[in-house]
Sequence to fold (188 residues):
Amino acid sequence: MSDDDLDIDIDDLERRMDGALTSLRTDLNSLRTGRASASMLEPIMVDAYGAPTPLNQVGTVNVPEPRMITLAIWDKSLVGKVEKAIRSSGLGINPVVDGTLLRLPIPELNEERRRELTKVASQYAENARVAIRNVRRDGMDKLKKAKAAGMGEDEQKMWSEEIQSLTDTFVKKVDSVVEAKQAEIMQV
Fold:
């Protein structure tokens, strides 16, 4: 087995770990921090024309103020369905309907809700760490197979340390991203 084969594996492991970090950032963007953000609505799906559809595909999402999101629905017949989807999303937002325009006022978060959201952020971070460790485990398994195929001890140790270093780097990135989000949530 050549070094080039393992180099590709390291790049693949790094790409997969980066995918876990990207997924974490997406999950954290959906958490409400008391400030309006169009990404808060991304996980909400509405039953449009018989299929679950993301909100940004049934209307235009805008953030005109720090505590307000507006959603201009393109098809008048979907206004009721969109309103129901937002109310049942668990975001704690009550839309105000004005024709085909929905105004979504973002209420202040109380202390208890802020603490709950920091716990949710921690859970998202732990899921990302587990995903990164699973990628590390896959890399180590490939390394064991390479050793069985004739890789030397020194070479295996070097690759093992590189995989562990990559894992540590990504776990630190996860920690810093979640700490920043928790600070943002707790900010009054």
About this structure: The longest helix spans residues 111-148. The domain at 3-30+110-186 is CATH 1.10.132.20 (Topoisomerase I; Chain A, domain 4). Strands lie at 45-48, 51-54, 59-65, 68-73, 96-98, 101-105. The two ends are 56 Å apart (CA to CA).
